[in-house]
Amino acid sequence: MAKAFGIGEEELPAYTDELEESGLRQTLSQAEQEFERTVSGVTDRGNPYSFAALGWDEVARLYALIRVRRPVVLVETGVCNGVSSAAMLQALERNREGRLYSIDLPEHSETSYPAGTFWEGKMGAAVPKGREPGWIVPDELRERWDLTLGRTQDELEPLLDRLGEIDFFLHDSEHSYECMRFELRAAHAKLRPGGILASDDTNWNRAFQEVVEEHGLDSFSLGAGLRFAVV
Q1: The model scores a pTM over 0.85
Q2: In the chain, how many domains are there?
Q3: Which domain holds residue 30?
Q4: What was the pLDDT predicted at 13?
Q5: Burial annotation 194-203 (CB, 10 A radius, 16+ → b, else e)
Q6: DSSP alpha helices (H): ranges in the chain?
Q7: Closest C-alpha among 31, 52, 151, 30 to residue 159
Q8: CA distance 204 to 225
Q9: Quick count: other Cβ atoms within 10 Å of Cβ 154?
Q10: % of residues, the chain, pLDDT over 90
Q11: What's the average model confidence in pLDDT over 205-229?
């Protein structure tokens, strides 16, 4: 993680400990265990259903980034069961400011959908049947959260127009090149100077790297395929 932007690896353990003390790690672990106990089967595309969450190291780094940068208006695409949403909301609660606006087109387990509902390259990330996207987010963190259901291709630009300017954007929805590039470019246009442009699964295609290069930005890893740049 980039010391130049206020976070050094030597400082990360303090934020990890802070997050541990919140009880969120236990909440996330219990939710994943419940998913594994209760969900089985495959999607219409033949992919096994999966909890599909960030690893704990990535969760802790994402939390630390928000604690240090203190964004006030945050937008996230892709919620699924809500691991990244919960981590960001926990950071906002600790910061005592900020609001998270999320967009999600959920795929529920044991549910068939019309052809074309989801990108053909989508894997098995799913919400348990009968649950809502972000079901694992603790009730006490929900006051800072607005969730819109729908395709980001339909919902993102209207949301960004309503918000005007944003401080933080995280892509974690459809990982097609076309969708990622669309989202990242739309979000970049609305980010305030010093804002964060972030994406998970940046290793799926070159969309994130291309957008970063277009604007002459440096990008930094939060672990695995999760990266961010400061505009």
Answers
A1: yes
A2: 1
A3: 3-230
A4: 87
A5: ebbbbbbbbe
A6: 12-21, 24-38, 56-69, 83-95, 152-163, 177-188, 207-214
A7: 151
A8: 8
A9: 11
A10: 92
A11: 95
Would you state the pLDDT for residue 6? 62
Closest by Cα among 142, 26, 23, 22 to 94:
22
Q: Which CATH number is 166's domain given?
A: 3.40.50.150
What's at 111, amino acid-wise? T
Q: What is the 3-state secondary structure (H, E, C) of 26-77?
A: HHHHHHHHHHHHHCCCECCCCCECECCCCCHHHHHHHHHHHHHHCCCEEEEE
3-state secondary structure at position 110: coil
Q: Kind of pairing, strands 191-199 and 166-171? A: parallel
pLDDT in tens, 103-126: 999 999 999 999 999 999 999 999
Q: What's the distance, Cα to Cα, between the start and end of the chain in Å? A: 16
Match 């549910």 to its residue by tokens: 111
Residue entry with tokens 């053909």: 120
